[in-house]
Write a structure and sequence with these properties.
four-stranded antiparallel sheet, mainly beta, 196 residues, 17 strands, single chain
Length: 196
């Protein structure tokens, strides 16, 4: 506004629009970040803030990095063998949206590690007594793997640390054994990743 010496004035004005500032996302992480198996429970967390709106709550999306399949939409994800296998990547994407509709997203990924197989029933020889030369004995065990399910064991028979036969059954021979020898059956299971 300007005014002359006689009191007359003139005014002019202009304006600018206040633009929205997009929100920011920080501290994105998946817990645990290591030692993850096909049965792990994962938790994704992130912090969101906006210069106009203050703190913002994030939404989450879990995806399989190989297939792109959506695995979940909450902050936690319970893994299972029908969702992932060892070596698979699992990604969490966190998104924050401010009151003006602007959003910011960020992602982080973890890898599912192999879990070795284990025996639920240890190796056992039958019969376990009254064993003589020409007696046929059998060995049995039950094993499984979190990734692969039930596994079929392989068997090795040994005396004094030396292998004398393989297979689930063995007929004692005077060539391989002697009175007083201890006959040992070793059962082995191996998963598809080579862990045993």
């Amino acid at each position: 506004t300007v005014t002359d010496g006689y009191g007359a004035s003139a005014s002019t004005s202009t304006s600018v629009n206040v633009q929205n500032t997009p929100p920011t996302l920080s501290s994105l992480s998946i817990s645990p970040s290591a030692g993850i198996t096909v049965s792990s429970l994962l938790t994704c967390s992130a912090s969101g803030t906006d210069i106009n709106d203050g703190s913002l709550s994030a939404t989450y999306s879990w995806t399989h990095t190989g297939s792109g399949a959506v695995l979940g939409s909450t902050s936690t994800l319970q893994l299972a063998s029908n969702l992932v296998q060892s070596g698979d990547g699992v990604s969490c994407t966190a998104t924050v949206i401010d009151n003006n509709g602007d959003s910011t997203s960020s992602s982080t990924t973890v890898t599912v590690e192999n879990t070795g197989p284990s025996f639920s029933v240890a190796a056992a020889i039958s019969p376990s007594s009254a064993v003589y030369t020409n007696t046929t004995v059998s060995c049995s065990a039950t094993g499984s793997d979190p990734d692969d399910g039930a596994l079929t064991p392989s068997y090795s028979w040994s005396v004094n640390g030396g292998e004398i036969a393989t297979g689930s059954s063995y007929t004692l021979s005077a060539t391989d054994t002697d009175v007083g020898d201890s006959l040992v059956c070793t059962a082995t299971i191996t998963d598809t990743d080579g862990a045993s």
